[in-house]
Amino acid sequence: MPIDMKLRRLAASVATYGPAYLVERAFSPHDQMGRLACMRKRQARYASMSRDERADELCRLFYCGTGRKLDLSDPRTFDEKMQWLKLYGGSPLRTRLIDKVEAREWVADRVGEKYVVPLLGVWNCFDDIDFEALPERFALKCNHGAGYNIIVHDKTKLNLADAKRKVDAWMSENYAYGHMMELQYEDITPKVFAEEYMENAGGDIYDYKIYCYDGEPLYTQFLCDRATGLRMAYFDNDWNKQAFRYSQHALIAENIERPENFDEMLDVARALSRGWPFVRVDLYRLDDGTIKFGEMTFIPAGGMIDWVPASADLMLGEPIGLSFEKARR
Fold first, then answer.
1. Predicted structure pTM score
2. What Cα–Cα distance (Å) separates residue 312 from each residue in 62, 78, 79, 218, 252?
3. Is 245 in contact with 251 (CB distance < 8 Å)?
4. DSSP strand E in 177-306: where?
């Protein structure tokens, strides 16, 4: 991540949580940030805000995080429209599809069980997990936010005390009330779950994040090298590489072959995204061509993306149609 972005986000955190954030953070592990007293206080305030207060706070957070002013009455860019959708795009179905456990049945009904990663168990808390019953390799995750993942390559080497500390902290957080106010997560009941382990040759896993506009995919974000330094590239539906990217991730320079079953991936994305002004359908593709559903991402990166070039922000935002009637209710 560029140093200017790191400094801007640190300043945004201090502006949001107060000067105590710096002191409390210095003495807390990174995965325990949600338990800081200053963050708890701010999250409680967010939970009690009216919608108008939340709109004002989103404008403040957006300026802190991006250096740009936000006009919710006339959003034009991708990032601006993501903020509008945080505030006005909610529905019980959206909540269900963001929930990484609840979404599975809906996805299986819509496109077929074969696209769903096998589930190994769902629990209300870490202490309920029967690790003896789990296989040697699996992924342990929480359903109610981003980054709540522990990839277990060898169960015999799993530090249970460390895993419990992480999961307990995650389960105690409402991800909606973080420094980007991702309100789409607000009503999800936290669960911890395990799913089947997946990887490609070399230990990597290929991630295809398909940008869909009312059921029509336009661009696919391809990600690789998660373990060594995430790189990305965007492609159109004819698999022509695009020039835009997130500023914090390197652009993939080498040629990436078009997947043989890319059309099938686009069809899955069409079926899952129909009816939503924007949703990113995240799919994995394994070496044998198997396609697995990852998640439905309604607000990528909190809608505070530093696009390179900056013109991509407007280009990606233009196809998103918003229903301004929701904002008047």
1. 0.89
2. 18, 8, 10, 13, 17
3. yes
4. 192-196, 206-213, 216-224, 231-236, 245-246, 250-251, 279-285, 291-297
Percentage above 90 pLDDT, the chain: 71
Better pLDDT: 321 or 230: 321
Query: What Cα–Cα distance (Å) separates residue 130 from each residue in 3, 32, 70, 104, 127?
Result: 43, 24, 47, 22, 8
Phi/psi zone of residue 288: left (φ > 0), alpha (ψ -120 to 50 degrees), beta? Answer: alpha
Q: pLDDT digits over 139-187, tens only?
A: 999 999 999 999 999 999 999 999 999 999 999 989 999 888 999 999 9
Residue reference for tokens 């963001």? 98
Distance spanning both ends of the chain, measured CA to CA: 39
User: How far, rounded to the nearest angstrom, does the alpha carbon of residue 308 sit from its chain's CA centroid?
Assistant: 20
Tokens of 293: 């559903």
Classify residue 50 by burial, with Cβ atoms within 10 Å: 0-12, 13-18, 19+. Answer: exposed
Give me the percent of the chain exceeding a pLDDT of 70.
Answer: 89
